[in-house]
Design goal:
The chain has 389 residues and is an all-alpha fold. It is built from 16 helices and 2 strands.
Length: 389
């Protein structure tokens, strides 16, 4: 849980200091330019991964668990893929991918998931809002109606996680963002809706709820998020705190998406940037020599296997920060290089991405052949930023 800000950070926030905030991490120390892949090779592997997934969206025998949920075109699993593909379409300026995203929105009728109040079922809104920002005639009525319904009766429940016996949600607290995954699913959509409509009420609600979740789930000594309150006291088999790679990846990848939708002058932007830099510094230190991140972040170097979905989301966030001058290229560039090499190594000759932990809420077993749509979305998000170097 989050306690008070460390005093140097608090001082910078209070003073409104414009000096860039830096956090120490091991780097090459040389000050030399760092290597990024040639854009042609990045585009080739990105296209191969995108192509394989687009060709395998009818049935899902290749997914070990949660096949029915995977088949939901408006659910969070597919939403994460389409968010990544939308970003890839934008980065490559390839009309084939853009048309695929537009066709998916139209086939969905521009609707949210069945639980329009739930963060998981709001994630697909990011796809519709991408299309609106890209100049398409997007139908946003369902998104606006759902978000307005939340604003008309905002939830005030505790963020403490308890299993929901009704089966409507995983937890009884999920009318709010009481699990860290939600910070990728919902806040960027709310901020994007303000950006598209010009009405700040969506953005302001999202920020208030975002920081409530941060204050509750963020460990400011470790600079990482617990998945939800059930993990505060849990420990791994090695005695470490449980910080889930994909869970922290969801948060870290969601930060760029949220920041891009905020006005530069927004008064809470600096707090988000501090959070982004803290997490970046910690995640860089936890990278495995192989370039990826293990399912449980503090169990690295203990025989665990790197995991592609968490690695993809983390790579996207780090590359995004380097590309925008928010993270030092000399320090973080080599981290991004190694991470991209790890991601590429998980792609087979056909373009199928492996080493993706299946649907869950904590670090779990991992197989070389495991894949899932959100892992592909994470890969395409990462590739979209690597391509820009």
């Amino acid at each position: 849980m989050r306690s008070a800000w460390p005093w140097p950070v608090a001082a910078l926030l209070i003073a409104g200091c414009a000096v860039p905030i830096t956090f120490p991490l091991p780097g090459n120390g040389s000050g030399k330019d760092v290597r990024f892949e040639r854009p042609e090779s990045v585009q080739a592997v990105g296209n191969r991964v995108a192509g394989w997934q687009l060709a395998h969206l009818t049935t899902f025998p290749y997914v070990r668990t949660f096949r029915e949920e995977t088949a939901d075109p408006r659910g969070w699993i597919q939403a994460a893929f389409w968010i990544g593909l939308a970003r890839w379409a934008q980065a490559t300026a390839d009309p084939v991918y853009h048309r695929a995203v537009l066709r998916h929105a139209e086939e969905n009728g521009w609707q949210l998931g069945n639980r329009a109040w739930h963060a998981d079922d709001q994630a697909i809104a990011q796809v519709y809002l991408y299309l609106a920002r890209a100049g398409e005639t997007a139908r946003l009525e369902a998104v606006i109606d759902a978000f307005d319904a939340v604003l008309a009766d905002p939830p005030t429940n505790s963020l403490e996680f308890a299993l929901d016996p009704s089966g409507v949600s995983e937890g009884t607290c999920q009318r709010r963002w009481c699990w860290c995954d939600a910070l990728f699913m919902a806040p960027p959509a709310w901020a994007m809706l303000s950006d598209v409509t010009g009405d700040p009420k969506y953005r302001e609600y999202a920020l208030a709820e975002y920081f409530a979740t941060r204050d509750y789930l963020y460990d400011d000594r470790e600079w990482l998020f617990y998945r939800d309150s059930r993990f505060f006291e849990q420990r791994t088999a090695y005695g470490n705190k449980v910080f889930w790679s994909r869970g922290n990846g969801w948060v870290f990848a969601g930060l760029p998406l949220l920041l891009e939708a905020l006005p530069e002058e927004h008064p809470r932007r600096r707090e988000l940037l501090v959070l982004f830099r803290e997490m970046a510094a910690k995640l860089a230190k936890l990278q495995e020599p192989s370039g990826g991140w293990p399912p449980s972040l503090l169990d690295g170097g203990l025989g665990t296997v790197q995991e592609s979905s968490g690695t993809g989301f983390i790579t996207f966030g780090l590359a995004w920060g380097v590309n925008r001058g928010l993270l030092a290229k000399a320090d973080y560039g080599p981290v991004v290089d190694r991470a991209w090499d790890a991601l590429r190594s998980a792609v087979d000759a056909d373009g199928r991405l492996g080493r993706v932990q299946q649907v869950g809420n904590a670090p779990d077993e991992l197989r070389e052949t495991d894949t899932q749509l959100y892992g592909v979305g994470a890969f395409l998000l990462a590739a979209s930023e690597i391509l820009k170097r």
